[in-house]
Recover the amino acids of this structure.
């Protein structure tokens, strides 16, 4: 079960009002979010843990990882237990379009007052801004895990396999994570339903056509389908990278579509993201946000993926995956 406080820190912007406040009144926005987080902090004592996971330090040379690691070291917030890197950069398989996949482990008990929460939110926002150095089309920030969540690790929402294949970027040493995992309580089917619902909603609103940023977010979500489907079907987590070797376990039409989008991603070219990058570095103001979308339309070479028939294909596949469980 995910912590409400952790989800608020992770998402922050949940409504249109939040988006406007973050752009026009950032200090007030941080205070507003801090109050929400404070009201949901866990008051219970942690139980005895039954499992231990060791995660080694990142030893790669990625410039964005180094800048974020150095920044976290300089701020040294008492509630940040660890910053953990996963995905292609952590495994040393990064490509020019790899984005930054990170998890922050937060000690609930050290968020003692509103000031400590506001300063944590400031760190989240600044480091998420730094992620754009890696990928100008970065469409997500940190995943946030509160230490209270480790008492019943939310494996269906943030599979433990991510941590098993990760590296620590703060502190700069090996760490041990202690946790409990109750597989019978993991609702992998719910995660599939939510992902399919999101993809269907975006297809119906033609959201992927809005900008290059929206298109990349759409493709990234689609490529999560194999892992999330296999988790729901077998009731246990699947590493995203491993799921593509098991595409044959999906319904045939879904297998075909996933292979098509996987090939698209492997040939990804985001030259136009250079413009997006320049705009993103000015995202602290509303004008930069608006210009970001106006200046970075979906490149012509990707427009064939956004026809009505292509979007309809995805809707049919999501429905088929749910029916085939």
């Amino acid at each position: 079960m995910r912590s409400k406080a952790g989800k608020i820190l992770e998402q922050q912007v949940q409504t249109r009002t939040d988006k406007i406040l973050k752009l026009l009144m950032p200090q007030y926005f941080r205070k507003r979010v801090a109050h929400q987080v404070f009201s949901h902090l866990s008051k219970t004592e942690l139980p005895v843990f039954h499992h231990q996971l060791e995660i080694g330090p990142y030893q790669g040379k990625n410039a964005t990882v180094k800048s974020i690691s150095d920044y976290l070291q300089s701020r040294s917030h008492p509630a940040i237990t660890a910053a953990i890197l996963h995905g292609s950069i952590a495994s040393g398989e990064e490509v020019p379009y790899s984005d930054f996949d990170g998890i922050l482990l937060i000690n609930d008990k050290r968020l003692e007052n509103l000031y400590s929460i506001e300063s944590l939110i400031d760190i989240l926002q600044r480091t998420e801004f730094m992620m754009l150095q890696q990928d100008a089309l970065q469409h997500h920030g940190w995943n946030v895990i509160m230490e209270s969540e480790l008492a019943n690790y939310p494996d269906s929402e943030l599979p433990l396999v991510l941590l098993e294949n990760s590296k620590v970027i703060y502190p700069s040493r090996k760490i041990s994570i202690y946790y409990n995992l109750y597989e019978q309580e993991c609702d992998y089917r719910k995660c599939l339903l939510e992902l399919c619902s999101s993809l269907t909603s975006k297809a119906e609103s033609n959201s992927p056509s809005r900008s290059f940023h929206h298109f990349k977010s759409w493709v990234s979500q689609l490529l999560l389908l194999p892992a999330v489907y296999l988790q729901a079907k077998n009731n246990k987590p699947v590493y995203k990278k491993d799921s593509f070797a098991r595409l044959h376990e999906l319904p045939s039409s879904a297998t075909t579509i996933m292979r098509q989008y996987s090939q698209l991603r492997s040939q990804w070219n985001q030259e136009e993201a250079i413009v997006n990058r320049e705009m993103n570095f000015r995202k602290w103001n509303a004008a930069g946000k608006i210009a970001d979308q106006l200046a970075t339309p979906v490149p012509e070479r990707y427009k064939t993926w956004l026809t009505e028939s292509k979007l309809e294909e995805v809707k049919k596949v999501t429905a088929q995956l749910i029916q085939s469980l």
About this structure: The CA atoms of residues 292 and 309 lie 28 Å apart. The two ends are 23 Å apart (CA to CA).
